[in-house]
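re: the backbone from monday

yeah here it is again, tokenized this time
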């Protein structure tokens, strides 16, 4: 088997990032890292995440993944990531975030753009960067450093960003309105999966889908795949601050309209609660969408998914495979031997693409235009991945060859 893509990936991930900013919060003991892998194009971008147990190495891993992602989604800037080691369920979360944003304020104003990520919503980032350092939008650093528009253009593009990211979207069948930022990543995951089946000569309609996570990626991924005719047969999540998992399964297909209407924050309503989620992993399915947790997919879980009939893994979560050391590929290699893998830097780049689209002067700010742009980018990237490829497996190695920058 050709392994040139894995070698390219390892060389890229073993190279040192350009800058790492560290922080220790004197009031709570929270730790923070801003990793800027490079300032390609004069700027770097990547979301802000928070979880108990987060590490510097995780931040480096994610920053490098963002750099690959921008090669797919645009703009052609460097990858970065803002990571906080702190419990998302702690009531002091907003104040910790504000102090962190003050600490990296110069980067945010002049060269770094951020947004939501695991356990940090986009609206939190917008509100708290404004309160902490007076930003009109957390992408200002990218806009200044990479696009460098005149003052009039700067203000026009800021308005596009503000309006487009928070654009209200009403989902047919769901009695709620959602912000574009809470839907577009999951929408992109669904469209990447659709694009694969279309290009492979089939259809997503009728496919059985398992989804991990029911937040801003998992919920919309499940919803849009359901609307495309797939059957979402299982969803699992872990409520904040709890050890137990919660999941629902139904071989006939779950009622996504109802589940999204009753969702509170990122928690799946109803279902089974247990600290042992093995029954979820053994649910018969065709497609698995990891949409929340990094390092979730272990070798054991690959065996369970294989036994459940899963053929395709569409990576909605960042770094979903349990290769924790930088440049490690053992779990990814094993997955690539048995499954169609749509990697995270393609499948979950919907929000990054939305930022890139909204930073184009004169972009149409509408639900239809933004979602159409994301779908075009997904279909283009999946088409490039499949062009000339024979067979089903080995797509991850191919994706690394095509999309990972030379180190």
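seq for it, each position gets an aa:
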């Amino acid at each position: 088997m050709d392994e040139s893509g894995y070698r390219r990936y390892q060389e890229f991930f073993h190279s040192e990032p350009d800058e790492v900013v560290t922080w220790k919060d004197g009031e709570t003991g929270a730790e923070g890292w801003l990793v800027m892998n490079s300032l390609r194009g004069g700027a770097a971008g990547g979301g802000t995440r928070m979880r108990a147990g987060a590490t510097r190495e995780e931040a480096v891993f994610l920053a490098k993944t963002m750099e690959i992602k921008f090669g797919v989604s645009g703009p052609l800037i460097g990858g970065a990531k803002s990571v906080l080691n702190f419990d998302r369920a702690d009531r002091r979360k907003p104040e910790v975030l504000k102090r962190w944003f003050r600490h990296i304020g110069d980067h945010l104003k002049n060269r770094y753009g951020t947004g939501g990520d695991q356990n940090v919503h986009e609206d939190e980032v917008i509100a708290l960067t404004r309160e902490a350092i007076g930003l009109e939008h957390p992408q200002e650093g990218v806009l200044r450093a990479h696009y460098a528009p005149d003052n009039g253009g700067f203000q026009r593009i800021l308005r596009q960003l503000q309006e487009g990211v928070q654009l209200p979207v009403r989902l047919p069948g769901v009695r709620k309105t959602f912000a574009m930022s809470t839907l577009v990543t999951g929408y992109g995951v669904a469209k990447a999966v659709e694009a694969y089946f279309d290009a492979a000569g089939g259809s997503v309609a009728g496919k059985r889908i398992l989804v991990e996570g029911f937040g801003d990626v998992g919920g919309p991924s499940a919803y849009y795949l359901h609307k495309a005719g797939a059957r979402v047969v299982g969803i699992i999540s872990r409520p904040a601050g709890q050890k137990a998992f919660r999941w629902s399964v139904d071989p006939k297909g779950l009622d996504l309209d109802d589940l999204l209407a009753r969702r509170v924050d990122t928690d799946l309503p109803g279902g089974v609660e247990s600290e042992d989620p093995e029954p979820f992993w053994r649910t018969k399915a065709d497609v698995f969408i990891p949409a929340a947790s990094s390092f979730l997919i272990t070798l054991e879980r690959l065996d369970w998914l294989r036994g459940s009939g899963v053929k395709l893994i569409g990576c909605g979560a960042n770094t979903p495979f349990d290769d924790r050391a930088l440049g490690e590929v053992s779990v990814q290699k094993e997955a690539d031997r048995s499954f169609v893998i749509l990697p995270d830097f393609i499948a979950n780049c919907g929000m990054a693409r939305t930022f890139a689209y909204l930073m184009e002067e004169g972009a149409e700010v509408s639900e239809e235009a933004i979602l159409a742009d994301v779908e075009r980018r997904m279909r283009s990237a999946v088409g490039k991945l499949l062009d000339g490829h024979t067979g089903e497996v080995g797509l991850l190695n191919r994706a690394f060859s095509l999309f990972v920058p030379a180190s």
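Residues 180-403 form a domain with the Rossmann fold fold (CATH 3.40.50.720). The chain has 17 helices and 15 strands.
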